[in-house]
Amino acid sequence: MRAIIVGSGAGGATVAKELSDKGVEIVLIEKGPTIDAKDASKYYANIDSEVKILRTFCLGGTTTVSAGNGVRTLEKELRELGIDLSEEFKEAERELGVRTLPDSHFGEGTKRIMAAAENLGFDVKKMPKFVDPAKCTPCGKCASGCPNSAKWCALEFVKTAEKNGAKIITDMPVDDIIVKDGEVAGVRSRDKVLSADIVVLSAGALETPRLLKKQELLTTPSLFVDTFITIGGALEGITFNKEVTMNALIAFEDFILSPHFSNQLVKRMAARGVQSSPEDVLGIMVKIKDAELGEVDKDVKKGVTSRDAVLLSEGAAIAGSILEKAGVDPSTFVSTPVRGAHPGGTARIGEAVDKNLATEVDGLYVADASVLPASPGAPPILTIVALAKYVSKNILDRS
Fold it and tell me: What is the mean pLDDT of the segment spanning 313-329?
């Protein structure tokens, strides 16, 4: 059996590893280049819309610029669709090394935020991380590419697949899926045709639906991105910008709060006449379960609904109260522009794919955030890895 996997992020890299472990012939195709993880920030390919959508095009995908957060999301929703990922989550947590970091890896800014939130009566937890504390020297560069390779990223699974004999092709966009008599036959890239018995689309929730539409296959007219803002202000000498980002979690029903630094805060403060260096800023991210409204066609359109605005405002108010309690001068508070980092929901389970993550075309599967049934409102990498393990088992069962 020969399988082509389109995309090398959390989903595609996992499928490549799982199938190649079992002797399946694998061709993994990535639109972006081969990179060193430490240079990942050079490969952002963001989408400008009302909500700016962050992503990268490179081997390893957006995992290379993730914050290393390993939280389980959408377990209940997936179980209701007939998908129990209990074993897959355990496997993923073990292989990614998910754990909370020791106290030595919590900086003064995060500690202040956690203490202030607890004093205000909020439930504060350490964020589960796929970060090796023995390799991690807190530097604040998680979202730029870890300079010490302390954070798991999909490149690790790509390397394992390659050792197993997988062929890795980079700088090669896939233009179309080839279908013959209702069965997948391969993919087309420019003037090249690659044949396969199985094709797994893991190109991400903005690219996968475009490939499905070319074959007039079902997609879902919805897009969520876990819309977020970061609220922050001045606290002299805190050096929060050098800390492990998002090292704590304060969860609410429809949003989460997490310590987060952004250079956008410094720029916004300067625009208001508040002169402050990156070392003097403390911030909190507000990430919501945004409305599942958006468009992926020739252009990508994603806005903020009135409900989204209410959730962002509610989260910002709580974040502000925590920051003030932590010692930040409220007169210096600013907010970043509205952004999103987790696009999903454009080829949902139960609509575009069945509970095996299979499309209507025999042998064509989807294994990325496109299939997620709802906005997680929290980092989804662990869930995508678990789903990729699950679809790999389904593919092996049919062979």
Answer: 98
Shortest CA distance to 265 belongs to which of 248, 250, 249, 245?
A: 245
Q: Locate 87 and state its tokens.
A: 């074993």
> In the numeric block, which tokens belong to residue 334?
């600013």
At 47 the three-state DSSP class reads: strand
Angle at 220 between CA 198 and CA 390, to 5 degrees: 40
pLDDT tens for residues 114-129? 999 999 999 999 999 9
C-beta of residue 178 within 8 angstroms of C-beta of residue 192? no
Place of tokens 């007169």: 331
What are the b/e assignments for 298-310, b being 16+ CB within 10 Å? eebebebeeebee
State the Cα–Cα distance between residues 237 and 277, nearest whole angstrom: 9
Supply the Cα-derived Rg of the chain in whole angstroms.
21
Does residue 80 sit in helix, strand or coil? helix
> Could you give the CA distance from residue 235 to residue 26 in angstroms, rounded to a whole number?
52
pTM of the model: 0.96
Mean pLDDT confidence for 350-365: 97
Tokens coding 122: 């909020």
Q: Which SS3 state, helix, strand or coil, does residue 293 take?
A: coil
Rounded to 5 degrees, φ, ψ at 263 are -65, -20
What does the alpha-carbon distance between residue 260 and residue 228 come to, in Å, rounded to a whole number? 11
- pLDDT band for 275, please (50, 70, 90 cuts): confident
